[in-house]
Amino acid sequence: KFISPADVSGTTMLIYDYEDKQDDMWLYLPSLRRTRRIVSSEKGKSFMGSEFTNADMGKPNLNDFNYKLTGTSEIEQKNCWKIESVCKDENIAAENGFKSKIAYIEKNNYLTHKVEYYDQNNELFKIMTISAYKKQTNGKFFAYTMEVRNLQSNRRSVMQVDAFQLGSNLMEEHFSPTNLGK
Question: What is the rounded distance in angstroms from the CA atom of residue 31 to the CA atom of residue 43?
């Protein structure tokens, strides 16, 4: 749930993350007072007018890509693998909004620090940087800052997380599309 800035306050997103099929995504828009389902053909589109996409908000389906180790690189004094992920077909590329990407994954802890996105012409068009990782009480890391720079439009968007709550006392029934606006 977004609490700021004021123009998006109250906007709520719900994602059902599946291992073996496409995720289900819904967005509650307070200005319309309704919940809208994000269908797979919209996952590669802009998330709320930003440089992030709807697909950036969830986990990718690992079976949609072919992977290749393309080398190593140093990102901010961190030794990283360069992993190329190529969409298996044009439909998957259209859904995700890119043909391939290269992720820079730190060797010591497997944290992703940078992702380069390539379009249908294999041109670099977008770079995401991920930073301010903090270890949570469950031992896993969470990124508090993500930035996307679109090299074609010269626009950028930053997502800053101020607080993170692991777990909830809410009942499972609260996590349904019909309850997003409540």
Answer: 21
- Residues 132, 94: Cα–Cα separation, whole Å: 31
Q: Per-residue pLDDT tens for 28-46?
A: 988 888 898 988 778 888 8
The pTM score is: 0.86
Strand 12-16 and strand 24-29: the pairing is antiparallel
Query: Rounded CA gap, 50 and 155, in Å?
Result: 9
pLDDT digits (tens, 9 = 90+) for 146-177: 999 999 999 999 988 888 877 788 788 888 88
Residue type for position 178 = T
The Cβ of residue 150 has, within 10 Å, a number of other Cβ atoms equal to 16
Three-state SS string across the chain, please? CCCCCHHHCCCEEEEECCCCCCCEEEEEECCCCEEEEECHHHCCCECCCCCCEHHHHCCCCHHHEEEEEEEEEEECCEEEEEEEEEECCHHHHHHHCCCEEEEEEECCCCCEEEEEEECCCCCEEEEEEEEEEEECCCCCEEEEEEEEEECCCCEEEEEECCCCCCCCCCCHHHCCHHHCCC
CB 12 within 8 A of CB 178: no
* Contact by Cβ (8 Å): 53, 44: yes
- Give me Rg for the CA atoms of the chain: 17
